[in-house]
Amino acid sequence: MSATRTIVLADVSPDPFFRLSFPLQPGLWSDLARRLPGFPLLIIDQNDRLIFGHDYLLHLRRSAVRTAPALVSAETDEKNLGLAFQLKLKLAGINLFEKLTFICKYMQFASLAKIQQAFPTGIPLNETNGDEILRLLHPRYKALLIAGRIGFRTLLEISRTAPDDRDSLLVFFSQVRFNENQQGKILEMLKEIQVRDCDAYGAILERTSFSTLGQREMPQKQILDGLSRIRFPAFSQTLDVWREMAQKRCGSRCDLTPHPYFEKKEVQLTIRCRDLQEALQIIEKCKNLIVEPESP
Fold this sequence. Notes:
Elements: E1 2-8, H1 26-35, E2 43-45, E3 50-52, H2 54-62, E4 67-73, H3 77-92, H4 96-106, H5 112-118, H6 130-135, H7 139-146, H8 152-159, H9 163-175, H10 180-197, H11 201-206, H12 210-213, H13 220-231, H14 233-250, E5 254-258, E6 267-271, H15 276-286
Helix pairs in contact: 1-2, 3-4, 10-13, 13-14
């Protein structure tokens, strides 16, 4: 059973066990209070421990508010923690650090399999990765997780690398934002290059000039292309020659894209033109284009 009563904010204990907001965003919850009048943004238990509303409590205290209505929950800590997670997820979203924090706290009440079934964390959980989940909450990862700079699978891979390589990856992903698919490709390329060249990740990444590229707008493609060139130097050189030949023969209004790694002789022709007549002229010009690249 739950009831609403007016509470003195100074008497409320913002229990860190139930806190799932990192960082606290009092401004966001102030806006939510205006948009959701009457919604219980403060929930306490029968011992005046704050279950939900850590951000909003901070906003009220900064605004010199002394009392406010709060929902009083008579539920167990397990149910209250689950309620805090669901409300945070629905009202403001929840970042990866907050999800991992919730999982680690809830592990005292239920198995990882039950957590996986009961809560939409988006994190693959099983009975073998509990210790890894705990390690992922190390302070070295906190800023990247809160900022959404790395995904769960990427974080797992980073945590399993050698310390020097791990630190290089953390610096790299803190400077340039990639989606999780791109992160996976980067890690895959780095592993292959490291096996071949016996280089540390930091040295390989420096060869892409990511420190300079990271200051530009949308540098992701250039960095991925740079890693691809390091991974396949002979292929990249052949591709450059091929593109130069195609540009000379077809002009700037036409792009010719070869089959990946020249595994087949077919090409994709992309034409930029004003009308059909111009397109036919370009196609006629391309008929005599024969490009036979040397094998990488």
